[in-house]
Amino acid sequence: MKKVILLLHVKRWVPLLIIMLFSSILTGTASAGTSKKLPDPDWTFFVPEEHSYMSDSNVRITDQALHFMSIDNQMFNLDKKTGKLLSKTSYTAGSNMSFNFFGTYAQTAPNGTVYILTPVKNRSGIEKQRLTAYHANGKVLWTKYFDEKIRSMSGVSVMPNGNLFIYLETASERVTSYRYSPEGKFLGKNNWDASIYNGFVNGLLQTINSTSKTSSRMKFYDFNMRQQFQYNFDFKEGVFSGFGSDGLLHFQKNLDNNVTSFTAKTTSGKVIWSRKINDVSYYQDSTTSVAVSKRVFSNGFTGIRSNGSFFMIDRKGVMQTVPASAQTYQTAGDGTVMLVEDSKISIYQTTASASVQIKLLHTVDITELSSSDPMFVYEGGGIVYVMTDNSKISRLNLNKLPKST
Q1: Residue 183 above 70 pLDDT?
Q2: Most confident among 3-12, 46-55, 316-325 (mean pLDDT)
Q3: Parallel, antiparallel, or unpaired for β 106-108 and 280-283?
Q4: Does an H or E element contain 348, and which?
Q5: Residue 251's pLDDT band (cuts 50, 70, 90)
Q6: Distance (Å, rounded) from C-alpha 274 to C-alpha 208?
Q7: Residue pair 131/166 in contact by the 8 Å Cβ criterion
Q8: DSSP-assigned beta bridge partners for residue 201
Q9: What is the structure's pLDDT at 48?
């Protein structure tokens, strides 16, 4: 009888021990790099203008500097290690254009040089496009003017070899482009019987021609203006999202019941993967990292669903999901991702293969900032910039978080 009782006790204890061990493992994983207290900022800078905002659209981070565009068209260039103001530039001076975002009209090079394309009028009232190169210290390095009369689209982009590509739409499916070295040396001019919308994206230039009411022809060129491939796009495929950093063509199509279909194809049109996902609220279809570097996030296709969960699809179409209540997220060239939730920010490490699980690196509670309307920008490597009270920018190094015991 004693043997039976002992055996019953053993059977009861085994599952309890397993549960205790499993709970210990989970607790250890979740607590790594977590803190209830924000780390002290490395520095804080006060933007003189009121009612500013900060996002991944109006901030770029280069080798030595943080470049921030305010809502009144002032560019603040800060030493990213110390927060010291290097310069303040009125980048639209003399122009009737107003914008405060990087991309079409403003680009940065890794060394901190900023290139701004704006329309200006001469004394005769004739409008010309002006390209200005600024040093991070605010000094104008050089200026170029273009005589073409713009129909609607114009822009500047940095090519993979570091040279500049300026595109000016002069008529429907007519574009004139110029190439310059970073020092302002003229390198060439091309005329295109096609449309150009974004310049160079993920290493290639895309041109578009309408071939019918329901189709178009897309051609892709390298920085030597040599065609790499052509793709004939049928609108039945949905929406062309872009040429990804993974070297694939990405498409998305909205289906019934809040279902979105995502498809990745080779440049020859072969389907590599296709996924249907419910309730997608946001996804990244091109490189959006604020850090200006040749290293870009290329581990997979990413997005968040309406419930805030983060998902990533690797190059083979295998999807991983991170349960969360994320409102936004940002990726970095080192493969890390920042999720921003109501009460915390978390940094995860991803890899190019879904066979390796996404790993939590840092989590920090941000409830103490809730009353100051915080806005976050992620550089990568655990470095986060936060704007509070619409005027105060601080640099946080999450690698300095105290380890939980």
Answers
A1: yes
A2: 316-325
A3: unpaired
A4: strand 344-349
A5: very high
A6: 24
A7: yes
A8: 204
A9: 85
Average pLDDT along the chain: 88
What is the distance between the alpha carbons of residues 188 and 175, in angstroms, rounded to a whole number? 14
What letter represents residue 354's amino acid?
Answer: A
Helix (H) or strand (E) run with residue 116 in it: strand 114-121
Residue 284's CB is within 10 A of a number of other CB atoms, namely 20
Q: What is the bridge-based pairing of β-strands 34-35 and 359-365?
A: parallel
| Secondary structure E strands in 236-370 | 239-243, 249-254, 259-265, 271-278, 280-283, 301-305, 310-313, 319-322, 328-331, 336-340, 344-349, 359-365
pLDDT of residue 51: 62
> Of 111, 109, 112, 110, which is closest to residue 89 (Cα–Cα)?
112
How far apart are alpha carbons 33 and 38 in whole angstroms? 12
Mean per-residue pLDDT, 216-232: 97
Instruction: Determine the pLDDT at residue 17.
Output: 37
For the sheet containing 164-171, what is the strand order? 154-158, 164-171, 174-180, 186-192
C-alpha span between 178 and 191 (Å, rounded): 9
Helix/strand/coil (H/E/C) assignment for every residue in 153-217: CEEEEECCCCCEEEEEEEECCEEEEEEECCCCCEEEEEEECCECCCCEECCEEEEEEEEECCEEE
User: H or E segment at 14?
Assistant: helix 2-31
Q: Does residue 266 register a pLDDT over 80? A: yes
Q: How does pLDDT run across 96-138, given as a tens digit for each residue? A: 899 999 999 999 999 999 999 999 987 777 889 999 999 999 9
Contact 252, 239 (CB under 8 A): yes
- What is the chain's percent helix, strand, coil content, to nearest 5? 10, 45, 40
pLDDT score at 286: 60
Q: Which of 200, 163, 202, 206 is nearest to 182 (CA)?
A: 163
Look at residue 150 and give its three-state secondary structure: coil
251 within 8 A of 238, measured Cβ to Cβ: yes
Find residue 168's DSSP bridge partners: 154, 176
Report, as an integer, the average pLDDT of 173-178: 97
Q: Are 176 and 190 in contact (CB under 8 A)?
A: yes
**The one-letter amino acid at 44:** T
